Amino acid sequence: QLQLVESGGGLVQPGGSLRLSCAASGFTLDYYTIAWFRQAPGKEREGVSCSSSGGVTNYADSVKGRFTISRDGAKNTVYLRMNSLKPEDTAVYSCAATLLDDCSDYDLWEYDYWGQGTQVAVSA
Length: 124
Fold this sequence. Notes:
Blueprint lengths: L2 E5 L2 E3 L5 E8 L7 E7 L6 E6 L5 E3 L7 E6 L4 E6 L8 E8 L14 E2 L3 E5 L2
Parallel strand pairs: 2-11
Antiparallel strand pairs: 1-3, 3-8, 4-5, 4-9, 5-6, 7-8, 9-10, 9-11
């Protein structure tokens, strides 16, 4: 069974850090483009960061310089390191996978596999 499982969310104070994990089972992430999306209450889902199968990374303007996406092939896992967190980063974060080697946009329909999401809350 092909599956993505996120972990690492939680409650953190403004300025704090979290590292989210997206672990794959049933397939090898090396061959896939992986993106992180987030959805805050009452808002549309938005793309946050992307790591293409070809080695390209991409970040939304709102997180550039604060978030870093990385891969660990041995663990078949993609990470999202989030620093200098702000209250507006509060959302459910999900990872998704596609065989398309493309990080130029975050079209939801391009992604074939989705995780269940992990909650991130940034509050004092």
